[in-house]
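On clarity, I found the account of how folds are encoded harder to follow than it need be. Since the whole study asks how a given chain folds, the encoding of that fold should be made plain. For the editor and my fellow referees, an illustration may be useful. An entry of this sort, consisting of the sequence and the corresponding backbone structure tokens, reads as follows:

:::
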Amino acid sequence: MSSISVPPPKCLQKPLTVPYRHMFGPGPSNVPSRILEAGANPVIGHMHPEIFEIMNDIKSGIQYMFQTQNKMTLAVSGTGHSAMECAIFNAVEPGESVLVAVNGIWGERAAEMAERIGARVNTIVAPPGGCFTIEEMEKALSKHRPVLLFVAHGESSTGVLHPLDGIGQLCHKYNCLFLVDCVASIGGAPVYMDQQGIDILYTGSQKVLNAPPGTAPISFSERACQKIFSRRTKPVSFYLDLSWLANYWGCDGKPSRVYHHTGPVTAFYSLRESLSVLVEEGLENSWERHLKVAEYFHAGLESMGLKLFVKEKRLRLPTVTTIVAPYGYDWKEITSYIMKTHNLEISGGLGPSVGLVLRVGLMGCNSSRENVDMVLAALKDALKHCHKSKV
């Protein structure tokens, strides 16, 4: 027998080339050179004391970003989906009732994850672009008596910023944990984990934080930890088991950390640097900048005759804007033209908003008036050159 039967692939004998693009879709966003350079530091061991120090810095940065004093604060080794699963897999046992507020794809995904582990899932559903009132929430909590309520704060598929005030207190009235997805909103819109009574909060690294995808900050309240650590059954995932993750991140008060998985050390470098950038600007300044840039963008869109998908201004996500797909145009042709002609990514809808909207994300370093002007010019050019049907 010959030693090998599969020859060396010719594609890997060529140098890697990656184009620069303006990443103005719903994520990932552009990564500043400062954060890229941080990720290029030497690899050291994932159990070395220097890495533990970096992980401690990350924990402090997440606590600031989330506005929480929770000890159980860490970053999951994975994208936002891994944090979503970490939250649900640890907080919910088979047969327990879960309530999911669905007003876009992230509610749909949370419901599916809970169903897969054997939870009894109930949903309240709002049309794309809508949200829920406190009264609707209470009615559903009273009816279904869930152990967990899921709400997407920044629903990037529809461009909705869901109000959070009052929901946490309502959940606690019904002995329910409050789980919030803030992947698309954190750093770009106010979130106060402790003040708003949020029990589990998670995000991703690749949006406002401008770090590469692959790490997912998450935090658990004391109430959440009490339920999680008194489970009758083990979580379905070993990789996402909070008891192991808590030890690796030094959150359990034990004197030593035990090997669980090989942490992505270079991703930790990038995440630490991105949190450092946020700390330097200041949360309130970042919130204000994103809001002002979004308002400038929305005014520019409306002056072009385009319509915003979310009608109520207070419900518009400042990081990801949804534009009603221009009548008579093929949205795919618009996004393809802009990519080809302007080297700029915007996207169509996702999940329930497919075919209804164009989505533009201006997050972190990308949130500026100069970038708004670039997007508006690209849209004007696309509407001038793309085919418009006469129907």
Remarks:
- The chain is about 40% helix and 15% strand.
- The chain has a mean pLDDT of 97.
